[in-house]
Here is the input.
Amino acid sequence: MAKYITEVLGIKYPIIQGGMAWVSDANLAAAVSNAGGAGIISCGGRTTEYVREEIRKAKQLTDKPFGVNVMLMAPNKDEIVDVICEEKPAFVTLGAGNPVPYFPKFKEAGIKIIPVIPNVKLAKRVAAAGADALVAEGMEAGGHIGVLTTMALMTQVIPVVDNIPVIMAGGFADGRGLAAALLMGAGGIQMGTRFLVAKECGVHPNMKAKLIEAIDTDTIVTGLTLGGAVRGLKNKFSVDFVQKENEGKTPKEELLRMATGTNKLAAVEGDVENGMVQAGQSLTLLQKEEPVKDIIENIMTQARETLENASKIKI
Ligand SMILES: Cc1cc2nc3c(=O)[nH]c(=O)nc-3n(C[C@H](O)[C@H](O)[C@H](O)COP(=O)(O)O)c2cc1C
Here is the structure.
């Protein structure tokens, strides 16, 4: 049975670039795959035409495996799943909903299935239902999050999933983190935030600049009162929003309306004060714009050094 994601996907390095709505397109995904990891095109907020075009574009840009991320709360999820099954990327990641009913379609199309899960119960369920690997994502991550930390998930998910690789996500940004995850028994890591400042990432330059300025304590979680927590940078939008949630005077519908379109506003239009700059907690490592290849090679070099030195630790 495969323990590492490299074996499942036939890739060089155990690093996946997480799907990022309004951010991860064919360019970024192909750059990560060409650098030895596996990139993912995001479908969040997109039309079926967009998804088809990006998959075709990525196939032009790389002959390496890449994936597509489907948010299962999207209104057009069924149409998107059909397009993915026709276009056949190497794998899909599925989050924000029950992925199991979609397994037969992807299996029939020969597409590997990697659900994104936030707790032990769902990890066991998807592993038993025939997933090829899973991503366990801690609340340090950028974007939609659960309540458990990456360490709590590594501690509790990895030992109970013994038939498929467990890819850890949330807070990874360097080679020490990758080495630690592998030592804990993970089969790889998924990073989102670290790739936001990649040269090949098409996110608006204002958002890159704000991320490079940001430090470890600069994120906030919106939506805790709405049942859909989202981590992003503190700014006018997110701080006001959380204040309104805590005051409890603004109706839920009004809050949902206020949040709609804010990811796109930041990532595409570059309004980093009124938009939601989704990002995780490991921010001090984002120091400059760098090619994906450099990000990945540096992480691999540091992970190898860390693992070599690990045997010298005496306890
Ligand atoms: C800007 C942004 C957008 C994201 N959008 C999605 C998404 O559409 N679907 C999804 O499953 N995860 C999404 N994520 C989560 C990432 O795929 C990944 O799991 C996460 O970024 C890992 O944690 P990190 O940010 O600490 O690296 C998003 C993350 C960021 C930063």
The chain has a mean pLDDT of 97.
